[in-house]
Specification:
The complex is a heterodimer of chains A (186) and B (396).
Chain A: H1 2-12, H2 16-37, H3 41-58, H4 68-91, H5 114-122, H6 126-137, H7 142-149, H8 153-171, H9 177-185
Chain B: H1 4-10, H2 13-19, E1 21-22, H3 28-37, H4 49-67, H5 87-108, H6 110-113, E2 154-155, H7 163-173, E3 184-201, E4 206-211, E5 222-233, E6 238-249, E7 252-259, E8 263-266, E9 279-282, E10 285-291, E11 294-308, E12 312-325, E13 333-352, E14 357-375, E15 379-395
Helix pairs in contact in B: 5-7
Classes of the chains: A mainly alpha (186), B alpha+beta (396).
């Protein structure tokens, strides 16, 4: 913790070496977060890039070093939400595309790898992917999600339900693109 | 009805996703540094808003009154710098969209499908979920199991188990590292101006009453300059410029003067009339007109200080111009034997049109503090001029 405190203070002074150290310290964690909120690794890197730029430019707004990690995560989440809003015309369309790679039959999601789990999340339509992450992973309430995503609470609930339905279908090995399309349009 | 089986299937997905980590590509740090090196969106305002508005208003009025020409005042983009998206960011989004399209295409292509199947196989622990055999026609036949790696949840994009991502990256996306834009720019500008002169008497033989009165905005004062050269930003605030300067004006100057040698007549004679002694002094007044045509070419150089803004930048500039005349004349003023050293002050509004181009408008004041003129008149002149430049910047 003292090391983080020192690093934090040096980052506040915009020292390039400290910025690189902070980046190296958190890049994997934040990249993992960004991967969940985006549909591809490349989009995740774009969000991560923007997130770190914001972090380095606004780190002086953070008071305590022990708050840095949670603050950095919240910056990345909000950047991902902004990214979603700017690209949502494409992201809300369900793209059954490469569904064969998602064919798997598992009794539980615990039986698949983390990478595969993230891939399942990546293939969710944009809005329900965002809601699923915000609710199930970050622990936000539907009220908070509604405010962040500029949607209603009921939409947030239905999108979460939809996300879970799609994930379960995938885990059961159901390949019903028409069904997904209908859900996405609904 | 609650789907208990479904909920059980999802299990600890939330916790696992929360812990999920993945290494970004090596080049990402370079892109972040590139973004950080770009100027901040808003510098500290040093120019009060009311002064800015009034100066812009004054510029427009002077331009309209002085030239009487058609002035195109384009709608300028409002400065919403606080929420503005850096251009690199926009580019990234555009690239992301493009990549997204490419990704869809690639995902559906058989060449890419085959190696991506390493995520498609069921866990081997369950006999119902056995990996298909080699004789299976499915493209998933030769793939590895996606059994979770409980040792570490960090995914290495270079590893064999992440072939999908690697292949997609290799075939479609690989965002190239964008080198920060050059700070070197070329400019060209046109500067219509109104010229004035300060008179410095050269000898005492005559008394100069002054130049013929002209309105400060008279068209007879009109001249124009064309400037071209380069400018370069040293850092976020300071920069410098250098280039050539061409100036032309066609003027005739008229002045009135009195001879110092006056005719003195005695109009009173105290010896004969007893009246007070009185004299009448007559100084003949003359008017003289001479041509003050000027075509100068020279060099200019100076510094630029960015006051604020990013897309619409406010800059202050100061520099020197050395110019030499080109017009040979047998008149009292010979431009070809004249040279001037002037200082220049300007206030520039520079608007970025796109990544490469910007245009600017700048009220300018130029004063020739050293004037070596071949002027056969009883005085010397120090010309100065004020005008408004408009120009274009091209960024490399």
């Amino acid at each position: 913790m003292p090391e983080l405190q020192g690093l934090f203070e040096r980052c506040k002074r915009s020292e390039p070496r400290a910025q690189r150290e902070l980046y190296d310290l958190f890049k994997n964690r934040l990249m993992g977060l960004c991967r969940r909120y985006t549909s591809s690794r490349e989009e995740a890197e774009d969000v991560l890039q923007e997130s770190f730029v914001k972090i380095f430019r606004k780190i002086d707004q953070v008071g305590l070093a022990d708050k840095v990690e949670s603050w950095m995560k919240s910056v990345a989440v909000r950047t991902a939400i902004d990214f979603y809003h700017k690209n949502k015309r494409q992201k809300d369309m369900y793209d059954p595309g490469d569904t064969s790679i998602l064919k798997v039959e598992a009794a539980s999601i615990d039986q698949v790898s983390d990478e595969y789990l993230v891939m399942l999340i990546n293939h969710l339509p944009g809005k329900c992917r965002m809601v699923f992450n915000l609710f199930e992973v970050e622990g936000y309430s539907h009220t908070e999600i509604a405010a962040m995503m500029d949607i209603t609470e009921s939409t947030s609930r239905s999108q979460l339900h939809y996300a879970k339905t799609l994930l379960k279908e995938k885990l059961r090995g159901v390949d019903r693109p028409n069904h997904y399309e209908r859900l996405a349009r609904g | 009805m609650k789907d208990l089986h479904g909920d059980k299937m999802l299990g600890s997905a939330g916790d696992r996703l929360r812990r999920f980590e993945e290494a970004p590509s090596e080049e990402l740090w370079g892109r972040i540094v590139g973004d950080l090196e770009e100027p901040r969106e808003v510098l500290a305002p040093v120019w009060p808003l009311w002064l800015e508005s009034s100066s812009l208003g004054a510029i427009v009025v002077i331009f309209l009154l002085g030239l009487g020409g058609d002035v195109l005042v384009s709608k300028q983009v409002s400065v919403q710098e606080k929420n503005a998206i850096p251009e690199r960011r926009l580019e990234n989004q555009a690239n992301a969209q493009e990549r997204s399209e490419n990704l869809t295409t690639v995902d559906n292509s058989p060449e890419i499908l085959a190696p991506t199947q390493n995520f498609t196989v069921a866990p081997t622990s369950d006999p119902k979920l056995q990996t298909p055999g080699p004789d299976d026609q499915s493209p998933i036949a030769n793939t590895q199991s996606p059994i979770p790696n409980t040792q570490s949840s960090t995914s290495n994009p270079q590893s064999k188990t992440d072939t999908t991502l690697q292949i997609i990256t290799d075939n479609t996306i690989t965002p190239p590292y964008k080198k920060p834009k050059s700070k070197f720019q070329l400019y060209i500008s046109v500067n219509p101006s109104l010229s004035f002169q300060k008179i410095i008497p050269a000898h005492d033989n005559i008394i100069i009453e002054g130049l013929e009165h002209r309105s400060p905005l008279s068209p007879k004062r009109f001249g124009f300059a064309i400037d071209a050269g380069f400018q370069r930003n040293i850092n976020k605030i300071f920069g410098y410029y250098g280039g050539i300067n061409f100036y032309h004006q066609q003027q005739e100057l008229t002045y009135q003067y009195f001879d110092r040698d006056a005719d003195v007549n005695r109009i009173g004679d105290s010896w004969t009339t007893g009246a007070a002694l009185a004299f009448e002094i007559n100084r003949p007044q003359h008017t003289h007109t001479f041509s003050y045509n000027m075509t100068n070419i020279g060099l200019r150089s100076g510094i630029l200080v960015t006051l604020k803004g990013e897309k619409l930048q406010h800059k202050f500039g100061a520099g020197l111009i050395y110019s030499h005349g080109l017009i040979k004349s047998n008149d009292s003023y010979n431009n070809s034997q004249s040279s001037y050293l002037s200082y220049q002050l300007f206030y520039r509004n520079e608007i970025r049109i796109n990544e490469r181009l910007s245009w600017f408008i700048e009220p300018t004041f130029i004063y020739s503090f050293v004037s070596k003129e071949k002027l056969e008149e009883p005085f010397k002149l120090k010309p100065y001029r004020a005008g408004i430049s408009g120009g274009v910047l091209y960024r490399f």
